[in-house]
């Protein structure tokens, strides 16, 4: 029964037409195990292979789970090689149109060595290819691709950990311990569906750089996805017999087959002649440094060194001294028909050209103490004319310091300090570079100003002299020391001094004007005589009764009887206006003894308030009418019908023409 790959498909005729001539791999299960290893995987006269065996599914139809594949003319990365699967190899060729999950119900076991290598206990349907070999060089490697139906494009969350297992197990013959070579490069993590997966599905990506693609229908194989071409490799001891076991199995159950594709002819017996010396690795050769490389191998009959693929004439010794960068290789012959190769890539650390080693900033805070924050990351970017992107530049306070300075560094020596730049991930090639940090200051003290624009009369804003340049926030920008403005607003000027440091001064211009006194409201004949100044105008005003001492309140309290002049001043210096007023009150006593002082009782200044016609009647303590003061008279002299009245308290009633009545009492003293 054929199962569709996805639950929903949109079939478009044009797609079938477009891919009608797609190419798929083919498989051949007639190869013997010996043929697969000697003539397909190794395919080299240098190989000394023995004890080859293979095992897999025992399908009733006679189909095998291992064999030869041909990918020539297709988009598959390998032109030929070996396929090991957990199902039928006849299900492996494309198109990718149905789920391959053969091997159910046939008691096809897993593999104990695989379980032990991957920490499993539930493998099924294992296919195993194993053999012995004796390496001529000190390194082996071969290329492979892991493909699986478990690379689902539309998985559920519960399917994210479904994975089959495989391993490339290597050990010295007779040893009980295997080493797994099928790991993610640079780690010990086995390659599986859930350790190598790309983004774009419900399942989280993992080591996505090693994942190739999720496959659509038209693919050379019938698998949902695969890794990129990976290389299994290991150091070995020349002349020593090794056993290798290549094994793949289903995990958990037989469903969703997986396969290992081994690149034909990729099993190489190479020679390691040392690690690459690369800028990216932090170990390039320094300028004028040389490197002695030893390619000596037991049993070798001849050597030939090459640089960048070109034979180096006369360089036929096992040892070669490298003096310049390039791709070097040594061809090592073992008799007439066997040749192995060792390679090493060499890069030189470049000569660094200093672009800028002096950096100047202005002191950025309020305290102009010659210290400020430098961005050392930016300084590192500007320090050299060009530098490899992998170089790490750190800064230190002294050439002997081992503790790097922070990215945002405040100079510890005021105004002028030298720190040292060091390439920290390239050892021994460069000396520290002195970097000078200079801090300039802006010492002038700027005070913001608030000014009044009096009745829209233009005013001049003066930023002060002694600066190298001025820049006002006007449109267009003005660059003079003074500007004239005729509108309220906030004006700022950036002042730059001779060391190119700047500060900003702000002028707040407020529309203002001289006040108009509209009324003076007087409350007198009271225990607290007050005068309230009513006014109008654009400005903010202050008030004074002596022209010197001003207050913000327009109310004056506790005023004594008499004449006053009020001054109203605009706080933005637009002008002062004044007005006079009188506070009326009655005397609290009088002394009619004819000494010319305080001889009459009278309320003064009534005429100043147009109250001169007010009626003022005086009564004794018993309420008996005593005297009525005639307007414009001198007042009461303390007599009644020419007879002096006694010293005591008397009462008065004053009827004002506005209907108000004022009452009070006073003392007559003789």
UniProtKB/TrEMBL annotation:
Keyword Signal: yes
Signal peptide segment: 1-22
Entry keyword set: Signal
Annotated InterPro entries: Choice_anch_L (IPR049804), T9SS_type_B (IPR026341)
Domain of life, per lineage: Bacteria
Pfam family, one: CHU_C
Protein name: Choice-of-anchor L domain-containing protein
Species: Flavobacterium ardleyense
């Amino acid at each position: 029964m054929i199962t569709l790959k996805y639950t929903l498909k949109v079939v478009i005729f044009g797609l079938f037409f477009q891919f009608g001539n797609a190419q798929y791999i083919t498989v051949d299960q007639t190869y013997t195990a010996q043929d697969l290893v000697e003539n397909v995987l190794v395919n080299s006269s240098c190989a000394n292979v023995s004890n080859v065996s293979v095992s897999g599914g025992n399908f009733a139809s006679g189909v095998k789970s291992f064999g030869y594949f041909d990918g020539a003319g297709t988009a598959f990365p390998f032109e030929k090689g070996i396929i090991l699967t957990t199902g039928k190899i006849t299900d492996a060729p494309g198109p990718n149109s149905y789920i391959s999950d053969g091997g159910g119900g046939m008691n096809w076991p897993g593999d104990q060595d695989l379980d032990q290598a991957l920490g499993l206990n539930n493998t099924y349907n294992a296919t195993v290819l194993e053999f012995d070999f004796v390496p001529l060089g000190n390194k082996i490697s071969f290329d492979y691709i892991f493909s699986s139906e478990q690379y689902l494009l539309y998985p559920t969350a519960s399917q994210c950990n479904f994975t089959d297992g495989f391993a490339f197990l290597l050990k010295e013959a007779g040893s009980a311990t295997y080493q797994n070579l099928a790991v993610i490069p640079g780690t010990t993590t086995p390659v599986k569906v859930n350790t190598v997966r790309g983004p774009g599905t419900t399942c989280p990506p993992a080591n996505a750089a090693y994942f190739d693609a999720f496959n659509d229908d038209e693919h050379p194989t019938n698998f949902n996805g695969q890794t990129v071409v990976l290389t299994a490799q290991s150091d070995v001891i020349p002349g020593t017999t090794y056993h290798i076991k290549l094994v793949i199995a289903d995990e958990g159950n037989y469903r969703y087959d997986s396969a290992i594709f081994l690149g034909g002819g990729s099993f190489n017996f190479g020679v390691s002649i040392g690690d690459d010396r690369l800028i990216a690795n932090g170990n390039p050769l320094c300028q004028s440094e040389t490197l002695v490389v030893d390619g000596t191998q037991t049993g070798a009959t001849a050597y030939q060194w090459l640089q960048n693929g070109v034979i180096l004439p006369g360089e036929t010794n096992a040892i070669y001294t490298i003096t310049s960068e390039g791709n070097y290789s040594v061809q090592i012959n073992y008799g007439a028909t066997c040749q192995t190769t060792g390679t090493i890539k060499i890069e030189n650390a470049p000569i660094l050209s200093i672009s800028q080693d002096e950096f100047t900033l202005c002191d950025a805070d309020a305290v102009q103490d010659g210290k400020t924050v430098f961005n050392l990351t930016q300084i590192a970017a500007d320090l050299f004319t060009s530098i490899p992107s992998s170089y790490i530049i750190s800064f230190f306070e002294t050439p002997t310091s081992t503790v790097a300075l922070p990215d945002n560094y405040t100079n510890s020596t005021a105004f002028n300090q030298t720190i040292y730049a060091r390439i920290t991930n390239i050892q021994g090639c460069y000396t520290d570079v002195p970097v000078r940090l200079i801090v300039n200051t802006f010492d002038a003290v700027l005070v913001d100003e608030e000014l009044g624009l009096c009745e829209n009369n233009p005013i001049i804003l003066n930023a002060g002299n002694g600066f190298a340049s001025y820049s006002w926030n006007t449109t267009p920008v003005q660059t003079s020391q003074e500007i004239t403005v005729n509108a309220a607003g906030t004006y700022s000027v950036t002042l730059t001094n001779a060391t190119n440091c700047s500060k900003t001064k702000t002028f707040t211009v407020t529309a203002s004007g001289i006040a108009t006194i509209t009324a003076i409201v007087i409350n007198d004949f009271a225990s607290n005589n007050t005068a309230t100044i009513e006014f109008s105008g654009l400005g903010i005003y202050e008030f004074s009764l002596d022209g010197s001492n001003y207050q913000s309140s327009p109310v004056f309290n506790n005023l004594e009887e008499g004449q006053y002049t009020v001054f109203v001043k605009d706080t933005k210096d637009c002008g002062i206006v004044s007005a006079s007023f009188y506070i009326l009150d009655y005397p609290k006593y009088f002394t009619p003894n004819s000494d010319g002082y305080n001889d009459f009782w009278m309320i003064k200044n009534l005429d100043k308030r147009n109250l001169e016609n007010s009626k003022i009647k005086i009564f004794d303590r018993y309420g008996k009418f005593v005297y009525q003061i005639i307007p414009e008279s001198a007042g009461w002299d303390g007599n009644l019908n020419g007879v002096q009245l006694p010293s005591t308290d008397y009462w008065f009633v004053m009827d004002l023409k506005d209907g108000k009545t004022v009452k009070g009492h006073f003392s007559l003293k003789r």
